[in-house]
Amino acid sequence: MCKTTVLSQNENITIAQCKNCSVINIWRTGVLMNFSFDQFDAFYVATKKLAFDDFLERAPDGREVVILSTPFPDISLVFTRGEWHEFFVKIEEALYMKRVYELVHY
After folding, report:
1. pTM for this structure?
2. Contact, 16 vs 4, CB < 8 A?
3. Which of 17, 33, 53, 103 is most buried, by the most CB atoms less than 10 A from its CB?
4. Helix (H/G/I), strand (E/B), else coil: 55
């Protein structure tokens, strides 16, 4: 049975890990993303260097958004500027806590 540890959380995002399964889950409104530990690190490295303004698009309601593709061509993640910033703050907190737990438990 999985015993998850919350690495980072606020009212919109929860990032938790299951050490037994070696999986990290990112819970975001209406979306659950699952990563191996290595995939999570690679996802962060690949996406953190993306500048919001370089990928700016307009949603049907006129809001400025970034659309982040996934490995499934028909599924994309959409972020406003605030959500984009919040998402990476939570990922950075989770990476920090993941490393803390690794140091404490190994």
Report:
1. 0.87
2. yes
3. 17
4. helix
10 Å Cβ neighbour count for 22? 13
Polymer length of the chain: 106
Domain-wise residue ranges, the chain: 5-105
Instruction: Report in angstroms the alpha-carbon separations of 35 from 55, 60, 79, 80, 95.
Output: 24, 30, 19, 23, 13
Q: How many CB atoms neighbour CB 86 within 10 A?
A: 17
The segments of the chain whose pLDDT lies below 50 read none
Contact 28/86 with Cβ under 8 angstroms? no
| Coil/strand/helix, residue 105 | helix
pLDDT at 2: 76
Two tokens, residue 46:
């690949």
- Residues 6 or more apart whose Cβ sits within 8 Å of residue 77: 28, 31, 67, 68, 70
